[in-house]
Write a structure and sequence with these properties.
By secondary structure, this protein is an alpha/beta fold. It folds into 2 domains: about 1-200 and about 240-265, Rossmann fold (3-Layer(aba) Sandwich), CATH 3.40.50.720; about 205-235 and about 270-305 and about 320-340, UDP-galactose 4-epimerase, domain 1 (Alpha-Beta Complex). It has helices spanning about 25-35, 55-60, 75-85, 100-105, 110-130, 165-185, 205-220, 240-250, 270-280, 310-315, 325-340, and strands spanning about 15-20, 40-45, 65-70, 90-95, 135-140, 185-195, 195, 225-230, 235-240, 260-265, 265-270, 290, 305. The strands form 3 sheets. It has a 7-stranded parallel beta sheet with strand order 3-2-1-4-5-6-10, sandwiched between helices. Strands 7, 9, 11 and 13 form a 4-stranded mixed beta sheet that branches. Strands 8-12 form a two-stranded parallel ribbon. Helix 6 (about 165-185) links the parallel strand 5 and strand 6.
């Protein structure tokens, strides 16, 4: 698919990635650095962990300025004004968020503040200091929440029924993006990305905590028991590396500004099927037992996350390249490598 992705439009352009230290942001930075001539700026907070940027740190430390880190916080409008006014980016990928649905049940107010008001603060700064920039606002498939079976697969016109404070916050993000396009003419694109995973996935997500626990078991750091939540939820899985290529392709057509797109993979399965696959790849598979942990169950679950991605595919001739098996195998290897090199891994997520 990379052969179909023309990145010349990014040459020498300033690109800002909010949330560059997250899974998606770091993979986006990797791709932009390796495959384009864009000048990359990544927004971080002073306490942001930088381990996902490990391979880029030597380049960040150089003086060639191809990739730069800048301090900013969605909860601090002054810092956002400074970032946007100083950089004046041509392209902005807004990925920063409190992005963990499970955590949002414990921290609903901070989730709503960061994701809704933080997005409003950012868009206000863009409106003042970089109104001609092209902006990708990352919403989420979680906005659809509890979807009736008759509405599967989910298209862009499906009604919202958010099933977590995180999902509610993304509804706000989604609507703000549309408002700033319609009211102020900002060149905003909105994506509702369905489940996407791979190396660097946070351990608060089901498939990643499965892989982490398997790696801990293989290193004899915990008993051969995998704690799980709801294994019956249905998901369509995409690879994060396919997701970032879709995001870059998204902003390549300025005349599509204002559009909202569902993006996702083409492999659907139950969470339990993901678990079975990961366990099958372990040398400890005959000893591993599965245990339901009530703390991992959500009060409400978005249990039918199957996308209709025809709109995006038709507009951009995009389709996912990376197979489910490679995505999950790479995720497991990521955790194996991480645990081999760091014996102080915290289990309970």
């Amino acid at each position: 698919m990379e052969s179909h992705l023309n990145t010349k439009f990014l040459a020498k352009k300033r690109v800002l990635i909010t949330g560059i230290s997250g899974m998606v942001g770091s993979h986006l930075a990797d791709f932009l650095f390796k495959n384009t001539k864009a000048i990359i700026f990544g927004m971080i907070r002073c306490r942001s962990p930088l381990e996902n940027l490990e391979y880029l740190i030597p380049e960040i430390n150089k003086n060639n300025k191809r990739i730069n880190l800048v301090y900013g916080d969605l909860n601090d409008s002054i810092s956002l004004d400074r970032v946007i006014k100083t950089i004046k980016p041509a392209y902005i990928f807004h990925l920063a968020a409190q992005s963990f649905p499970q955590i949002s049940f414990y921290e609903p107010i901070s989730t709503l503040n960061t994701n809704i008001l933080g997005t409003a603060r950012l868009l206000e700064s863009i409106k003042k200091y970089a109104p001609n920039s092209v902006i990708h606002v990352c919403s989420s498939s979680e906005v659809f929440g509890k979807v009736p079976k008759e509405n599967i697969p989910i298209d862009e016109n499906c009604s919202f029924h958010p099933a977590s404070p995180y999902a509610i916050s993304k509804v706000g993000t989604d609507l703000l993006a549309k408002f700033y396009y319609e009211a102020y003419g900002l060149k905003v694109f909105t994506t509702r990305m369905f489940t996407h995973t791979g190396p660097r996935r946070g351990d608060v997500f089901a498939e990643s905590t499965f892989a982490k626990q398997i790696a801990l078991i293989e290193n004899k750091m915990i008993e051969p028991i995998i704690n799980v939540g709801n294994l019956d939820s249905l998901r369509t899985i995409a690879d994060v590396r396919d997701a970032v290529r879709a995001y870059i392709m998204l902003v390549s057509k300025n005349n599509n500004a204002g559009q909202i797109y569902n993006i996702g993979g083409n492999y659907s399965c139950k969470i339990g099927d993901i678990l079975k696959f990961l366990v099958s790849k372990s040398s400890m598979k005959k000893l591993i037992k599965i245990k339901i942990d009530k703390k991992r169950l959500r009060p409400i679950d978005a249990d039918l996350q199957i996308p209709n991605t025809k709109k995006f595919q038709n507009h951009y001739n995009w389709k996912p390249d990376i197979e489910f098996e490679k995505t999950m195998s790479d995720l497991l290897e990521y955790w194996r490598d991480k645990i081999r090199n760091n014996k102080s891994i915290y289990l309970k997520r």
